[in-house]
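Quick log. Single chain, no ligands specified.
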Amino acid sequence: MVTTDTRIDTEVVLSVEDLRTHFTTRWGTVKAVDGISFDLRKGETLGIVGESGCGKSVTMLSLMRLIPVPPGQIVSGKIVLDGEDIVPISEQEMAEIRGSKIALIIQDPMTSLNPVFSIGNQVEEAIEIHQDIPKQSIMDRALEVLRKVNIPAAETRVKDYPHQMSGGMRQRVVGAIGISCQPQVLIADEPTTSLDVTIQAQYLKLLKDIQKDSDLSIIFITHDFGIVAKMCDRVAVMYAGRIVEHGSVRDIFNNPSHPYTEALLASVPRMDRVVDRLFSIEGQPPPLHDLPVGCAFADRCPVVMDKCRESYPEIKAVSDGHTAACWKVE
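-> predicted structure:
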């Protein structure tokens, strides 16, 4: 089932304009995010897909203002959240926004949950920082969000520590912390990677239910196009720090217009086809400290032309709301 709701007429809660995040290294300047732009609307899910190292996670860390300085730095661009550009604001101001207006669920809950504090302590901490409410109300709110993410016997489990819970339960606890202060935007950075298929399906349904109840806007980072089809309204395909194609899920699946998008889709095994060998994309992405003048995908592209190596293609409209950065798009 492919999601078709693109929510074109709804309010934009997050607008990213020409964002560039670079890292200074001994080899040169690594352009991890190199001029990306997109909008996220209220109640919408935007999927961001691409190979490892294409800039997905750095984009999300940039949105949260969690880039380590040095060696990293947001060198230009705007991140407009709820009408305010959060790039130039102070760290203290950002600390008030982070968690309350925009929250993050990271890939591995064991790296974000503190092993020496109970689950209850960690959920309550986020609420206490951002909401000026009495202690009893903080405890009640913590139990409420744990129940919301389907933690069984929440009154008892709040006393447990992360190592006493399964991987699926720990991921739900991280989700509970993320939604505890009712943010407008939730970033989910490959939250189902460490989960088995059954638990993964339950977790995705849980996120959709939470989104439906609260009109939450979600940015979902994943390698899995099956998850994109189930979860997302629109999708942005990233390669070498740039968005190379952007459109509704239906447009991307039915009319992929960038060779990289076509290759990613071809890499997904099909249950209705028998093949001797699964498709793979030949070669490797270019080093981000030494990007070519032209299209970064040129050396791996099956339809490369001379001008692909000479200059980077402009972003062109394929159809209404569907764009691609490729010279073959007329």
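The CA atoms of residues 123 and 177 lie 5 Å apart.
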